[in-house]
Structure formats: structure tokens, C-alpha cells
Design a protein that fits this description.
The structure is a single chain. The chain is α+β, with helices and mostly antiparallel strands. It is built from 15 helices and seven strands. The strands form two sheets. The chain has a five-stranded mixed beta sheet with strand order 2-4-5-7-6, with helices on one face. It has a two-stranded antiparallel ribbon with strand order 1-3. Strand 6 and strand 7 form a beta hairpin. Bound molecules: 4-(isoindolin-2-ylsulfonyl)benzene-1,3-diol.
């Protein structure tokens, strides 16, 4: 009996993994949520999620199996896998349950709440697994690249699944208290960018003052160059305020730490300058600091999960310095920006300071979810080594290195 049940689940797993995820745009999510206030569309939401959630889970679980052996066998990774398997199993229980029965929809909604709670600590637990593997086996470049590729896709998949679960539970779950009536689920159709910038700045400043006893001031300039609006109109877009806050809070922490540490001795610290610009296609939020910057050769490291997974003892004093990169702050913030077709870019002038730019889509119909798709292209990344460099390198093989003559 056990084997038959297990094999039945595996068959279902392969079935759902064979479908591609269906990306939704912010526009679609808004329209759906607006009609959602009437009772009809908890049923439509159920019908969509009944298939889409198992499809997204199965797609990313296919990739988990392609991870390097050394990582797969880490206890923390096995724990995360067990959470995904359990959640997948609970979802396919609803495979043939009719959407006509409101009781079934209520049971589905509470299952989503349970799944969201089960997966609360997935990021930390995976980071723990990476750390366990690093300490047990060390890491070669190929594995490092595959793990970087995987974690970007794995965390993006998780962001998207939590987005769909949050929309459904906020729109159709128990009335959550103190939520803004103008919001559609976790989306604000008219998210005031300056307000979120100020909120994130104040909270980062509070932490900075607590730890460094001082914090740099901020100066914000806004420029509305959108054709249908005046230059001084407030800059608003349909967006998820909590995602925007997460990105801004991370960038302000980095900027404040840089400025405070770089100007620790002398008096007044240079301002953090923020530009908010709304164009035809992009809203750009540029955060400029004079924190001494970082060499170009090290910029990529800031987005490496492996690099920012520091060994335990170092982590403890980092934890005491609240502004210190919580390891995954920048890579996760960039995923939030990319999730709805935006991005985060860093441009640094080493010896002076760094500009961090958040790019967001102005038009909600262009803000489509960016989802990892498990296919041959993805599969190949896990099976092919980094190609040989097709640009010259200072010590390429055909030149015997100078030192060999002196040996
Ligand atoms: O690498 S950075 O240029 C830097 C990176 C990202 C960012 O958002 C802002 C930044 O300023 N910067 C981070 C940091 C921390 C401690 C001491 C000095 C610095 C320099």
C-alpha cells in the first residue's frame, strides 16, 4: 500500500512538473482582485490555484533534485525537501474536489495558510544547508555557479508562490483586520513611492543610530516625467508595498553602514541623496551614498549567496551589527525587483561612494511575473561545466608563466 501511494504521488508529481507555470501580471492580479470582492471569484481563484500551485511546486522540486550531491544530502536541505513534498501532497488532495462547494474552498484556503506557515523559514534553512555543505566539503566553482543559479530560481519561485497564496487568503480568507480598503490583497494600485522611501529610511536610520549612535541625513528629489501627469504630481504605481519596502530598507542599511563607517572620525556625515523619477516605462529610485564605494572586481560578490553565507561564529557579531548585510539582503532584494520585470543595479566609484538603482515598471500590464521554468535549458546548467574562457586571460595556457623559468 505504501509503495502504491508513493508511486501515485510521484506520477502526479511528474504530471504537474510537465506543465509550465502561468505568469500573471500586476494588471491581471488587480482586475481579478477587483471583481474578487464579490463572492463569485473565490471559486475562480480556487480553480486557478488548484492547478497553478502544484505546477509551480513540482517545477521547482524537479530542480532541487539536480542540486550537487553534497548539498542535497545536507540535513537542512532534506528538511526543506520534506516541506515541499508535504505541501505538494496536501495540494493535490484537492485535485478533483468541486469548486461548487464553498466548504471545499474554505478548506483549500486554510490549507494554503498551513503551507505558508510551514515554509516560513525556507530561506534561513537553505542558507544553513549551504553553510553545512561549505564546512563539510568546501566548494568548487562549478558547484558554486550551479548553487547560485538554483537559489535565484528557487527563491524567485518561493516569492511567486507566496504572492499567489497571500492574494487568495487576503481576498477570500478571514477578513484580516487593519488592512487598507484601497489595497487589492497585498497590492496597492496607487503605491506612493516617496512614502515607502521615507518609511524605509526612518526605520534604517533608527537601527543605524542605535548601533553607530549617528546616522546620515537624507535628501530626496522627485521628478515626474510621465506624459499624463504634472512634474510635481506624486509618483505612484501599482505595486506591492511590502516588496518595495524590503528592497529600500536593504539599500538604506547598506548606504548608512557605508557612510557611517567611512566617515567614522570626522564630524558631519555626507547626505544620502535619493532621486525618484517616473518616466514613460520605468520608475527609477536611485540611492547615492558617499561611503567610499567598492571596487568593480568585488561588486558581483555582493550578490553571491555563497559569499554572503558567513560561517556561524562571524554571523554572531554580524547579528549584533543590525545593519550588516544579513547575507542574502541584496540577492533577495534584486529578486523582488526582477519578480515584476524590474531590477536592482549597483554602480560604484571606488574611493567615493555607490549608487544603488531600483527600476520598476510604470505600466501594470508590463509588470508580468518572472518565473523559473524547468526545461532542457535549465537542466543543462546543472550538467555542463563552465565553458572555457573565450577571451584572453593574463596567464592563458599557451604562455608559460614567467615564474616557471625562475624555478
Ligand atoms: O559596497 S558598498 O559600496 C555598497 C553596496 C551596496 C549598497 O546598496 C550601498 C553601498 O555603499 N559599501 C557597503 C559598505 C559597508 C561597510 C563599509 C563600506 C561599505 C561600502
Amino acid at each position: 500500500a505504501i509503495t502504491s501511494v508513493a508511486s501515485a504521488n510521484i506520477l502526479k508529481f511528474e504530471k504537474y512538473a510537465s506543465f509550465n507555470p502561468s505568469p500573471l501580471s500586476l494588471k491581471k492580479l488587480l482586475e481579478f482582485g477587483r471583481t474578487g470582492q464579490k463572492n463569485g471569484s473565490s471559486q475562480q481563484s480556487y480553480i486557478f490555484l488548484q492547478k497553478e500551485l502544484p505546477v509551480r511546486l513540482a517545477n521547482i522540486m524537479k530542480e532541487i533534485n539536480l542540486l550537487p550531491e553534497n548539498l542535497l544530502k545536507m540535513p537542512s536541505v532534506q528538511l526543506v525537501i520534506s516541506w515541499y513534498q508535504q505541501s505538494f501532497k496536501e495540494l493535490i488532495e484537492f485535485e478533483n474536489k468541486s469548486s461548487e462547494d464553498q466548504k471545499i474552498i474554505e478548506s483549500f484556503t486554510s490549507t494554503l495558510v498551513n503551507i505558508r506557515n510551514r515554509h516560513t523559514n525556507v530561506v534561513e534553512t537553505m542558507a544553513q544547508g549551504v553553510l553545512e555543505m561549505k564546512e563539510a566539503y568546501g566548494i568548487d566553482t562549478n558547484s558554486e555557479n550551479r548553487i547560485q543559479y538554483f537559489l535565484d530560481r528557487f527563491y524567485m519561485s518561493r516569492i511567486s508562490i507566496r504572492m499567489l497564496i497571500n492574494q487568495h487568503t487576503l481576498l477570500f480568507g478571514k477578513r484580516e483586520k487593519n488592512n487598507d480598503p484601497r489595497h487589492i490583497g497585498c497590492i496597492d494600485p496607487n503605491c506612493n513611492v516617496l512614502a515607502v522611501v521615507q518609511d524605509a529610511y526612518e526605520n534604517a536610520r533608527f537601527l543605524c543610530e542605535q548601533y553607530y549612535l549617528a546616522a546620515p541625513d537624507m535628501m530626496v528629489k522627485t521628478h515626474n516625467n510621465s506624459v499624463s501627469e504634472c512634474e510635481t504630481d506624486p509618483i505612484q504605481i501599482a505595486y506591492v508595498p511590502s516588496h518595495l519596502y524590503h528592497m529600500l530598507f536593504e539599500l538604506f542599511k547598506n548606504a548608512m553602514r557605508a557612510v557611517t563607517e567611512y566617515h567614522s572620525d570626522e564630524g558631519p556625515m555626507p547626505l544620502i541623496k535619493v532621486m525618484i523619477v517616473k518616466g514613460q516605462e520605468d520608475v527609477t529610485i536611485k540611492i547615492s551614498d558617499q561611503g567610499g564605494g567598492i571596487p568593480r572586481s568585488k561588486i558581483d560578490l555582493l550578490f553571491q549567496y555563497m559569499y554572503s553565507t558567513a560561517p556561524q561564529p562571524a554571523r554572531s557579531d554580524i547579528a549584533s551589527a543590525p545593519l550588516a548585510g544579513y547575507g542574502y539582503g541584496l540577492p533577495l532584494s534584486r529578486l523582488y525587483a526582477r519578480y515584476f520585470q524590474g531590477d536592482i543595479l549597483l554602480a560604484s566609484a571606488e574611493g567615493y561612494g555607490t549608487d544603488a538603482c531600483i527600476y520598476l515598471k510604470v505600466l501594470s500590464n508590463e509588470a508580468n511575473e518572472v518565473l523559473p521554468v524547468y526545461n532542457k535549458t535549465a537542466d543543462k546548467v546543472y550538467h555542463t561545466d563552465i565553458p572555457v574562457n573565450d577571451w584572453s586571460s593574463p596567464w592563458s595556457t599557451n604562455q608559460r608563466s614567467f615564474h616557471s623559468y625562475t624555478k
